[in-house]
Design a protein that fits this description.
Helix content is 72%, strand content 0%. It contains 14 helices and no strands. It has helices at residues 2-37, 44-47, 59-65, 68-98, 106-114, 121-131, 142-149, 166-191, 195-203, 208-219, 221-236, 240-245, 256-265, 269-299.
């Protein structure tokens, strides 16, 4: 036993600073957030300690989940995530498929596709706020003005000001920014497939379409799953892009992350913490199964 402790001592000492920081600033703060979420800390006086708080357990969660306003935020989050995922996966995959065979000017096209990633969500949101202006007719601007100029007036719409589907308009700039990242993932997957596998399929009489459909595409399933998890978890935490295009007070584009900001700004720390915990659970439901699957794959 003593020998084992001596052998494990140096590695534990090496990892100790990281473990302590992780315990305090990740799990410790998660515990503190949950503790706040089960109290009645809803006012500035309670937030500053001038009035006491009491534990109400899960009342805040029940009130939030039963609220039509928060249900609207959850539906917006679902719509945003679905449109964001489908758009980035389809466009990113198609770009990677087109660039699978090396060609002249590939570096230029790759740079063009990846450039939006270098732009912050806030900066792009300012531009897209103008492009997605909801004014129509004589006062039209942005995309609505473009549709008017080319004779496609029927395509004019209120964009993010639509109460039901306005959040899907904000998914457009998100797709524009992250499609290049998905393309890079799929392109790396294509380039990682051995050339011998392609040649063997061609020698067996497979056409180019059969080569891709039956041989290459199945090899990309781990890449596709990784891209889904990464983009999905990013969409669930979307905040800066939505805030730079819309406003916190806009009912039509609010998502749980925006609700959390609004609650915190009004000193309603309990509900803000409860929203944060709900988001954490949603992300965990998506990420944890993926981590378990990858761990099992590595052990095979």
């Amino acid at each position: 036993m003593l020998k084992r402790l001596k052998a494990a001592g140096p590695p534990l000492l090496l990892l100790a600073p990281s473990l302590i920081l992780l315990a305090v600033f990740v799990y410790g703060l998660l515990a503190a957030n949950f503790q706040t979420s089960i109290t009645d800390n809803h006012t500035a006086a309670q937030a500053t300690g001038q009035q006491p708080t009491v534990v109400v357990w899960f009342d805040n969660y029940f009130a939030l989940l039963g609220s039509s306003s928060f249900q609207h935020s959850l539906m917006n989050l679902l719509l945003f995530t679905v449109v964001f995922l489908i758009g980035t996966m389809v466009i990113g995959f198609c770009w990677a498929w087109m660039m699978d065979k090396p060609s002249r000017g590939e570096g230029i096209f790759r740079s063009i596709y990846l450039f939006p990633m270098a732009v912050s969500f806030v900066a792009s949101g300012v531009v897209w706020r103008w492009l997605l202006n909801s004014n129509e007719g004589e006062n039209a601007s942005g995309l609505n003005r473009l549709f008017q100029m080319v004779g496609l007036d029927f395509l004019q719409n209120p964009w993010w000001n639509d109460v039901t589907f306005g959040i899907t308009a904000i998914a457009l700039p998100a797709i524009w920014q992250l499609s290049g990242y998905v393309m890079a993932l799929f392109l790396a997957g294509f380039r990682g497939i051995p050339e011998e596998l392609r040649e063997a399929a061609r020698m067996d009489g497979a056409s180019e379409w059969q080569l891709y459909r039956l041989v290459l595409f199945p090899q990309l399933s781990p890449v596709a799953l990784s891209a889904l998890i990464i983009i999905g978890h990013m969409s669930l935490k979307s905040f800066d892009l939505i805030m730079s295009i819309s406003k916190p007070a806009n009912y039509q584009t609010k998502v749980p992350a925006v609700d959390m900001y609004v609650f915190k700004s009004s000193f309603d720390y309990a509900n803000a913490a409860a929203v944060g915990t709900i988001l954490l659970v949603i992300v965990a439901v998506i990420v944890v199964p993926y981590l378990i699957w990858t761990n099992r794959q590595e052990k095979r």
